[in-house]
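Bump. Still looking for Alpha/beta fold hydrolase structure tokens.
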Amino acid sequence: MVAALAGITPAASAAQDARPTWRDCAGQGIPAGMQCAAIEVPVNWAKPDGPKVELDLARLPATEPAHRIGSVLGIPGGPGVSGIEDLKRAAADLTELRRRFDLVAYKPRTTVWRDQMPSSCMQPGTSLFEPQSRKQYEALAAAMTKAFEACQSADKTGLFAHMDSLSVARDMEAVREALDEKKLSFMASSYGGVAAGAYARLFPQRIRAMYLDGTINQVDGWPDQTLRTLPVLERVFTRFTTWCADTPACALHGQDAGAVWHKLIRDADRRPIPVTSSEFGKGKLTGWHLRSFGFIGDPGPDSSRWLAFAAAVDKARNGDGSGFADFALGNARIWAAPGALAMTCADDRGYRSYAQLQKFRRQARKISPNFGGAAFDALGCTGWPLPVANPSRPLPTRGLPPFLGVGSTWGDYVLTESFTRMIPGSVTVGYDGPGHVMYLSGKKCPIQHATAYLTDLRPAKPGTTCPPE
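Sorry for the wait, here they are.
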């Protein structure tokens, strides 16, 4: 894949002759007072007079208009998640923020694509596996290229080639223009951090404040981000083994759970475990499948996920991989579906060569004996047939205000913090428990910090943490 930047300037905008017409929203589960509208933006920002795509908007007006500061725009994750659904879900927890701000949400072009893409685009190009040779890597890349090209041929929207986060950021600027705001404040969640970084690159002068919640730092590159998370995953796995040693209900209680797991993945790499999934049919689980899709760091209610994981490991070491079959085989196929991957591959997510994969794998295995290996998301984007529109590269930070981040110390804190540390004066608050996207999860302490920052433009003190809720 060849990295390339589209030659587009901020002047190529989709400014409207008339402001959008707001009306009361219709449908189920609409918060009181929510208004809806829509704008049109170019499918291809390099051709502003070409085909358009309609983006739905929603807002909850400030409840104290006399003290209104401006608008806060939500940047949803996924990609493919609707920001409007996020706002409906989070509205009750953002009551304090809404006193001084209009809360604005939109349906990104990735969500439009998700809803309109040809069904054939969700047919996997292959079932993902970890290539052990250049020949296997090239076969994987060829299979994925074929699937991507077939999906693009079936696409009637034109969006397939234009879902990179620079295009999304230009859509966000069109939303700002439609709102007639000189600057916007933002709340970005998960993959929305990629679009947030793209917006900071293109329109730094338009950012009043930026709150990042469990976001990805695409600026540093996907391999770097994955390597950052592996030590955290190892620490959480140690939490699991300690929990198992103290919990008689754990299927591996009284044994060295870590050693059992390590032997299982090693043996499965040598002799894959045959499995049958009711949904995905027959397959084989290698150690790579188990390392990639077997363990979930969040123990779940009453440790239900860890109980299920331990039981699945106990059965798998005796040749019964049914406890992992659906999740592992399903993910190996979903992460090879060209329609889903088209929303991320142009953000430089795939391996560019077998040599890059080998280098990453060596680093990952050294850092994490239990989970190191080729990253499944990068494998899926192998064979992307178009130029990488949004390559990973340094972010100019001049003119940016301090950002506030929040992340789980069990998972995404290291990703969010690697983003905020680039921007002088920024801080990331650690949530000392499992979870992802705290404001959407209704976590009170992170929401209080977000509200204070967005209102007063003062991030929390460095080293601030929130207790688990």
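Residues 1-17 have pLDDT under 50 and may be disordered.

Edit: fixed formatting.
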